[in-house]
Amino acid sequence: MPEIVGTSLVNARLMLRNAGFDPELLRVRYREEYRPRDEVTAQSPTAGTLVAVDDAVDLTVSRQSLVHHLPQIFQKADRDGGHFLREFLWIFDHIYADIQRKLDRVHTYFDPLESPPEFLDWLASWVALTLDQGWPEDKKRKLIRSAIEIYGARGTVRGLKLFLSIFTDVEPRLIENRFPYRGFRIGQVRIGLDSVVMPPVNLAHSFIVELPAQYTDVTNENILKIHDIIRLEKPVHTTYVLTFAAKPSDDSLQAFVIGMGRVGDVGVIAGERYAPPPETE
User: Fold this and answer.
1) pLDDT tens digits for 158-199?
2) Domain of 91?
3) Residue 256 β-bridge partners
4) Considering all CA atoms of the chain, what is the largest pairwise distance in Å, rounded to the nearest integer?
5) How many domains does the chain have?
6) Residues 6+ apart with CB under 8 A from 99
7) Does 236 fall in a domain?
């Protein structure tokens, strides 16, 4: 059990959640004390106690009673020292305290980096941005924060690179007026290597998006999302090709031996007598 006495109730909730405790099992009781508002003054179990994460946690929190907003005659204690009205008004404090805390922090709702996760979609609608629900939360926040800047550069190399950088966490390289395939031309291409059947391509309206990451490091779902981003941000009349960094390969030539080599593999015919490797037991 962490030491949370002396911290604010908001920080205490975070500390307990990070320690693995269920927020639904947290029980708060308000008490009027000469301490800062919403400061935790007592906890049960005590700090350092070994408890299960599914056990209930009781916190006593300092707060000023609503009875102080009533006329003085209602603030007088009973003859036996009790105060029925004050204790009764704690019920309303427990009901409306969370709402009041949200109103005290309402300015953070309009900051993409501090806004609650459930508020992000609504905050994105303020800048006419539709969020993909499959995006991680941190990328959604970065996108909302940069939305106005992206709109100003939409359809440009800078805007496309900025959008892709937010999603992929790497800066892509855009090569304009280039296309990796030239189509099928007799005498200039080789079948199966660099021949592609495709419609005419205007190089003046073509570009290549090259990500500095290997294809195997990107999931199929993210590749589809990258294509969606490019189609959304590129000029309508342009054609593009998405490429990835090439995977390092072993270009060394290996000897070709009948019965061990396969046609099509990289190899050469050994001019010397081949000595097979020793057999292992």
Assistant:
1) 888 888 888 888 889 888 887 776 655 555 555 555 555 566
2) 9-108
3) 269
4) 113
5) 1
6) none
7) no
